[in-house]
Amino acid sequence: MRYNEPSPLEQMIISYRFDLPNPASIDTYLANDGYVAIKKVLGMTPEAIIDELKVSSLRGRGGAGFPTGMKWSFVPRNTGKPTYVICNSDESEPGTCKDRLLMENDPHQLIEGMLIAGWTIKSNKGYIFIRGEYRYLIDIVDRAIAEAYQRGYLGKNILGSGWDFDLYTHTGAGAYECGEESALLESLEGKRGIPRLKPPFPAVVGAFQSPTILNNCETYSAIPWIFRNGGAAYAALGTPKNGGTRLVCVSGHVNKPGVYELPMGFNLLRIVNEVCGGVRNGKKLKAIIPGGSSSPVLRADECDIPYDFDSLAKAKTMAGSGGVVVLDEDTDIVAVALRTIKFYAHESCGWCIPCREGTNWLKKILSRYHEGFGDESDIDLIAELANNMLGRTFCALGDAAAMPTAGFVAKFRNEFEDYLKKSPRFQPAPELAVV
Amino acid sequence: MAEVINFTIDGQKLQAAPGTLVINAAKQAGISIPSFCYYDNLALQAACRMCLVEVEKTPKLQVACTLPVAEGMVVHTDTPQVHQARKSMVEFLLTNHPLDCPVCDKGGECELQDMAFRYGAGFSRFREAKIHVDEKQWSPVVYYDAPRCILCYRCVRICGEGLGVSALGIGNRGAMAEIVPNRGDHLECDECGACIDICPVGALTSGAYRYKTRPWEMEHVGTVCTHCSNGCKTTLGVRNGRIIRANNRDRSGVNGEFLCIKGRYGFDFYDHPDRLTTPLVRQGGELKPVSWAQALAVVAKRFTEIRARNGKFAVIGSNHTTNEENYQLQKFARQVLRTSNIDHHRTGDVATLLDALQGRASALASTADLVNAKAALVIDSDLAQEQPLLAFSLRFNWRINQGHVYAVTPGPVREDNYATTVRAEPGREFEQLQLLKDRLAAEPELVILFGAAIKGEDIRRLVAFGDSLGIPVKYVALVDYSNSRGASDMGLLPDLLPGYRPVSEAGLEPGLDYDQILAATDLNALWVVGANPLSRQPLASQDAFVVVQDLFLTETAQRADVVLPAFCAYEKNGTVTNVCGDVQKLTRGPKTMGPKPDLDIIALLAKEMREDLGPTKVADVFAEIRNRVHGYNLPLVVIESGGAAQAVPPNDRIQIQSRPEVVRSAGNTLYTSGTLGRYSPMLNSVLEAPGALYHDPHIAPFVAKGSVQVDTTEKYG
Ligand SMILES: Cc1cc2nc3c(=O)[nH]c(=O)nc-3n(C[C@H](O)[C@H](O)[C@H](O)COP(=O)(O)O)c2cc1C
Ligand code: SF4
Ligand code: SF4
Ligand code: SF4
Ligand code: FES
After folding, report:
1. Is residue A65 within 8 angstroms of chain B, CB to CB?
2. Alpha helices in B452-558 (DSSP H)
3. pLDDT in tens, B71-113
4. Which of A325, A332, B8, B597 makes an SS bond possible with B572, Cβ 3.0 to 4.6 Å?
5. CA Rg value for chain A
6. Which residues pair with residue A279 across a beta bridge?
7. Which residues in chain A touch residue B85, judged by CB atoms under 8 angstroms apart?
8. pTM to 2 decimals?
9. Where do the CATH 3.30.70.20 domains begin and end in chain B?
10. What residues pair up with B473 in beta bridges, in sequence order?
11. What CATH code is assigned to B280-345+488-662?
């Protein structure tokens, strides 16, 4: 099931099976181009596969937008160790809800993408790491895996190639941090979900101390299409260096929220106004959080830009995980900032000082501010604390918390200031208790 | 490959080996980069972010504790940006820190205080409520105050990586993250307190020390632990003449980072209410307190009488008294009492090993060898229980220097977790050794450590086995107490003088050994110094005049006619020799009133009997030992400055009367220490605490007998 009616503006190349009857079944998949790409790939060398991916300019859909072909090329050959293929389906970034649809409606597409990765590095084992809260998806994906084994797409001697590949699901336990690739690996190995020191990166030392390909669920799901239609065709769908399509997850104050597959570089304002039917209740647009809750907010006047990695980076924000949160004119930015930092404070793993203490402190200041007990000096303090975290934390979660917070203050300082003029919800005590 | 890397830190052009971390390269150049989580020889964490530095051509600040130097790298450790970053880290850290420095054990020695002093702001911008979590007691030894914890994970690593115990972990997340013990609400572990000492702040405190003093009120006295034979250096914190704590934060001794529970907390026996403070003399069947003069007069008179009628004397010496005391005691026995009936509880057959080696001095391993040797083999000892420092050292060697460890033991041992281990029932060790022979012979060198079960002829067999390997082999005859080795070296033996010279050189015949002394029915006098032989077997000589020097009214003291209260090792000066022959200096810590050092008691008795025993002062006796006892001519400057120098006594065959039957292990565990241990409230509290005894869950599956264990070295190494 999907959340929304498809839009005519969509270009469905990885979501087109979503609306078929019985979309998750292998028969549906086989009847609709399924397991065609792997047959082709089994005749290709790793170099040729990676070159094709580079041509496609596919970039990781997990958040960082790292070129997938290049990532695969970092995996060392012949280390004597086993290699692993891991799918990051931890999907925990607020505003993001696409991997869920991919697993629910087209699990075989994901399996085929992982098979291609497995063949490329001659791996014999893969894991799909699914976020704890998606428990129901595990049954669906497990069923698909069982079907694939039955039909010989998984297991021993796949399609007579002499190559074996086993695939397993593994569930997280409800931690955003376990979506960070190295924390995911720790969690997968049965340890506490905290990130690892990098370098070495997972490509070299990943799961169980071995070379590993780790990609997002949507990244893998795009791969079969690329090998059926060619990397150049995929690249042509998007903008330069930003190949293909994206599942854009639109939430917030729009008439038709949902997940839409749009070509890379589709204009952000058009997504709101044309794909999603405009801002709800005829209100005016105030701002857009363009790439999941960790991306710095864009004011309405900044939103007329192509939705791809590089354009958003130029606007000092990011396309991240594809979660577009639309905020209308009535939105209380302080409340949004508070909600955002509450999430990160709750999800900070606690490993490093600036993130552990910084998110907690920011949460407390913003809570107080939101309740009407703020003062002038808090505004600069919030911005300064966010900057004190930025670039100094162990993993990117700290940045993910600091960037949007700094962004809200920078872009909507006036709203913070107006807050001080509003009558506080409670009369402030003459002196605040300092503990 | 380039062997040196050229780089610049704060304008200094420097060189270092590839792989050197910036934090260490800077330290070597005299530039200190602040750190909490970085700790020598423990895994890198990069968690505290205190060590951020600027590296040219790198936009973000870099973490110096995980960054290896690179060719041409230019590092700045003291720019405004770096300073600002450090200041902000301290500010973050202090937000949820209780700032209860005035009552915190660590106040004055706290790394967070020091860091706040250097980088802290003059005022707090944190106006919110701090997170409070109640303090927890995890064991009689360990308390944890989560709000004070800065989550540097040093405790977790020293316990897991350092000791191989892994009793600590991390629970919760974010600002609520905290350290948690291995049994939910309590600890089952070695109770060594390494976690407490390594904690940079006052988050972990010890049941022994907490809230007793301010650190600056103590004097710090470097001495040696008096429990097992490993001879760990310890620093006593002494206030008003009393020991308040023991630790080794300066890492200056043979033990480096290490102390076990006995070294850190087991000093407390000295303060036990049952401690003898005045001499006792039996009057009308009861021991009555008397003055020192009276007691010494009684002993001198009886000894003189018995000697005059050619009565039979025997002397049992101590495993704990100093070399000087042992040396003078045997001199007294042989010169004054004219007897060879002198022995001590032998916990290892040192003399036979020395004889079997026939003067090969280089075949005696020093304590330092254990952390450097390419390979070590343990036979018949549960090292972690009986020789805690040696176990720690072998593990360190495996962990840091890739040394290999082998063990042949009757039951499961902690080394099973990382070493190649073989189970052998007692008496069948040599069959099992054969299984390992090829692997041992392939090692470049080997240190063999063997327990008390290998004695007499077995030691000669073992040395023959070592010789057959065709590689350099060194040995350690494991003994049990702080100066067991010194007792042997100083001639507390019926057949050997100090330095293992035959008694015939003194014109004497070999005398009665320990068992024979206790079994003899015709002794006229027995003098027991710092030993409790009657705790195990009765004294057959019903009528003997018994003199006991001890700290407590032990089973032996209760049988005495005269009891002379003695100092313990923490209260006196002198030297002791550890299991590997390393000689170290004891320095008097507490100023206990009443008892006397055994050396003084021996000298006073000699004086009372108008006998000349030569020097009376510690330094003079040691000078005589250096002159006269083979192997003890050690560099004075090393000993005096608190270092360790190895004594290598024999230079040839030893005319030994093999008496393997009197060699018996004391069977101490990590939490017991013979008679002394019974008077330690801390050791007893740990023994009594439910679940506090160490049960290693990893060991249980390895109980299969006589099977070669899988070599896990590669898996971990
Ligand atoms: C705090 C944090 C959370 C993350 N969560 C996710 C996630 O839920 N799903 C995901 O695919 N990537 C997540 N990432 C990104 C991954 O670390 C990694 O870059 C990504 O899975 C790589 O796949 P890709 O190259 O296909 O994007 C997260 C990163 C951080 C720092
Ligand atoms: S930035 Fe630090 S505390 Fe935050 S999630 Fe990453 S490692 Fe954990
Ligand atoms: S208890 Fe001490 S050593 Fe352990 S993590 Fe906390 S501050 Fe560090
Ligand atoms: S290992 Fe031995 S010498 Fe070291 S602290 Fe423990 S009992 Fe004392
Ligand atoms: S010392 Fe480098 S991060 Fe802690």
Report:
1. no
2. 457-468, 484-489, 514-519, 555-558
3. 999 999 999 999 999 999 999 999 999 999 999 999 999 999 9
4. B597
5. 22
6. A254
7. 388, 392
8. 0.94
9. 100-120+128-271
10. B446
11. 3.40.50.740
Length of chain A: 435
Whether A190 has a pLDDT exceeding 80, the answer reads: yes
| Residue at token pair 């994970």 | B153
- How does pLDDT run across B673-696, given as a tens digit for each residue? 999 999 999 999 988 775 544 444
Residues of B with CB under 8 A from a CB of A: 44, 46-50, 52, 59-61, 66, 85, 88-89, 91-93, 95-96, 124-131, 150-151, 169-170, 172-177
CB contact A96 to B (< 8 Å): no
For every residue of B93-122, DSSP letters joined together read HHHT----GGG-TTTTS-HHHHHHHHH--S
Can you list the pairs that B110-113 forms with residues at least 24 positions away whose Cβ atoms lie under 8 Å? B110/B200, B110/B201, B110/B202, B111/B36, B111/B200, B111/B201, B112/B36, B112/B150, B112/B200, B112/B201
* pLDDT surpasses 90 at A3: no
* Torsion on CA atoms B158, B162, B168, B173, rounded to nearest 10: 60
CATH topology of domain B100-120+128-271: Alpha-Beta Plaits (3.30.70)
Secondary structure element (H or E) that encloses residue B448, with its range: strand B446-450
Which of these, A107, A309, A320, A115, lies nearest to A213 by C-alpha position? Answer: A115
Closest Cα partner for B313 from B599, B515, B522, B507? B522
Are β-strands B446-450 and B375-379 bridged in parallel, bridged antiparallel, or unpaired? parallel
* Protein residue with least CA distance to atom 2, ligand 4: B228
Q: Residues, chain B, total?
A: 717
DSSP state of B496: E
pLDDT at B225 over 90: yes
Verify whether the Cβ–Cβ distance A357 to B131 is below 8 Å: no
Q: Does domain B350-478 have CATH number 3.40.228.10?
A: yes
**CA B311 and chain centroid, separation:** 41
Alpha-carbon distance A382 to nearest alpha carbon in chain B (angstroms): 11
In chain A, the residue whose alpha carbon lies closest to the alpha carbon of B715 is A209
A388/B175 Cβ within 8 A: no
From CA B485, how far away is CA B489, in angstroms rounded? 6
Fold of the CATH domain B5-93:
Ubiquitin-like (UB roll) (3.10.20)
The closest-lying atom of ligand 1 relative to the alpha carbon of residue A182 is 17
Strand partners, A323: A249
* Whether A394 contacts chain B with CB within 8 A: yes
Residue A330, SS3? coil
Residue span(s) of chain B under CATH 3.40.50.740 come to 280-345+488-662
pLDDT at B655: 86
Domains and CATH numbers, chain A: 26-237 (3.40.50.11540), 245-328 (3.10.20.600), 333-421 (1.20.1440.230)
